[in-house]
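Readers of this paper often ask what the protein records in our data store actually look like. The remainder of this section carries one protein's record, kept here as part of the documentation.

:::
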Amino acid sequence: MYTSHVGKVGPGSGSARPFLEGVRVLELTGALAGPYCTTILSDLGADVIKVEPLDGDNMRRRRMGPDQISMPFNLVHRGKRSVAVDIKTKAGQDIVRSLAKEVDVFVENFRVGALENQGLGYEDLRDDCPDLVYCSISGFGQNGPLRDAKGVDLIAQAYGGLLSVTGSEDGTLAKSGFPMADLGCGMWGAIGILGALQRARGGHGGAYIDVSLADTIAGWSVWEVADYMGSAEVPGPLGTAHRLAAPYQAFKCSDGQLLVIGGTDRSWLPLCRVLEIDLSHDARFASEYSRFVHREALAEVLQQRFDTQSRDVWVEQLRSVGVPCGPVNNIEQVLADPQFAARGLFPEDPERFGQSRVVNTPVVADGAPRARSRAPELGADTAALLTELGLDEAAIAELHRDGVVASADVVSGVRS
């Protein structure tokens, strides 16, 4: 019989075996989508090996000062191992092929076709690695008329329709403040990988996974597609309002702070009681659908009441009667929030993580250790990994002399 453990498992308790213990991942990635994908796998317990160019991932150079660590790099490469290899050389390509034989998962986000040109595509590896799960992350995917077009987060938000519905009702557009295409694509990559691993471990062979930034955004257009199919009207931006329900938006309170209401039909009467308004005789607000149709007029009525008290007072009163609501927090407030602290989302351990905070993978479960350690120095694990491949000290030294690999003890000027 199933017993719920919700609320009983502490964040990152890890008293059981990590979910992906024994899974090895090889990543040739840069920017955000690819590294975020493998960070999820690392936090779930996988051993992730990051292949970097000899001068390091570009994100290593995004630091606030010359003597500081790169916080962006550290956030999305924590808990991994680093091997510095020039994959433009035949010897470097041979090293990657050898590493691929020792791992379960291969993740890359190079330009479409770039790794195939170097003999490191899925078809190049599958004969020697029949159970390999190979994931390619790109702007528009590996096929279609735009397969060769360059795509970044903003372009994907625009192309996939998100930008057209995000912003003010006056038509002023706004991109999502978080890089939704990058982060979402990394998540879809991780989901596909986990599914393919299940199949591979069942003895049915590896898989090739193709995820894109544009597909990620377009694939989230559930409400907008439903709205369009039902009304034949092209959806536009609604500010903080919902496309199918009301009241469902942000309101300013007497102290200038904002709260959001996620109104449902069940919470309508409790909301009216807390706000001390009687709208029972107004046909415009008699049903959930009519409130949605007349959402602007409804918002004016509600705003007049929210103007009379502070945000925290309203949030406390509304929550006490079960009305979905919450404050509009900035990032400083998010980091200090006790709920997120209880969930272990932003652990503080500078010695362990190399900076004051990290952003955990939001999976709370026994066996999900989440963030474990800081990002590696460039080439920190080059020698160890080459040794695991069977190379002796002389062979490794020759690779160094030939400029094929680099190790942390011989790399200067680039720190994670």
Observations:
- Residues 180-204 form the longest helix (25 residues).
